[in-house]
Amino acid sequence: MTGLTAALAALVVTATACTSTEPSSPSPPTATTSPPPSVSRPLVLSPPEIRPGHRQIASGGPRRGGWDLGAVQLAKGTSWVNVNCVSDTGTGRLTLTVDTVGEFTVDCPSTEVRINVNQLNLAEGRKGRFHIETSQAVRWTADIQVPD
Question: pTM of the full predicted structure?
Fold first, then answer.
């Protein structure tokens, strides 16, 4: 019984030591100043605008990496091949191909959305495939517009 009494006495002493009636002095507030985290927002990648007097015959995106936008029938006259792109890091490259017509290579920076407009003046209509080649680090949206 003395062991139990000693254990109870030790418990009472421990309990009374934790409940002090003296006011404790508050610790001074610590001022930690840290710069706000820089928030990196992705650049907004909008589709190309439709030009007056033209209609869109193929479009794709926003996407990453290469993509085949399918067969297109280009009309006689002025057509537009448009691509808006941005790279995750550094400068990415994007190649647009309209077989039977031509190929365009575009630099896509990481600091801004690059808007590229390529004018085609065709003496006669042509059929071809619209294809884009680029890395997964490049986001893009593209279209082809022909006269109404």
Answer: 0.70
